[in-house]
């Protein structure tokens, strides 16, 4: 029982670190995008794009593109949390919560990757 509690605490720590890393990385990328935009290196803001489009049209010299990448990374951070929850529940052999988390993950991925804004 003690080992299971220790593994759970380790997984919670991993999830917390992953969320913090995602927020810090996305913030740094958005800041870079703002700096590029302020320097005049920007293109018009595209409309009706999905997260996949953000990665496909990425131009590291375009402030708008880099800013959108930062926003996409921020949106993907909670998805990483759900992925880690699925892994955690599978490792614990808690199939009910693993299945529910997997369902949430599928819904998130469908809405993020196939729905245009």
Structure description:
With 117 residues, the protein is mainly alpha-helical. The chain contains 4 helices and no strands. It has helices at 2-38, 51-56, 63-91, 95-113. The longest helix is centred in the first third of the chain and has 37 residues, at 2-38. The mean pLDDT is 90.
Brief summary of the model shown:
It contains four helices and no strands. The chain is mainly α and 117 residues long.
Strand content: under 5%
Task: Extract low-pLDDT stretches.
Answer: none
The total of beta strands comes to 0
Structural class: mainly alpha
Question: In terms of quaternary structure, what is this?
Answer: single chain
List the secondary-structure elements in sequence, H or E: HHHH
How many individual helices?
4
Cα shape: elongated
Radius of gyration equals: 18 Å
Gap between N and C termini: 47 Å
Percent in helix: over 70%
Give the overall pLDDT as a whole number.
Answer: 90
Number of domains: 1
- Major β-sheet profile: none
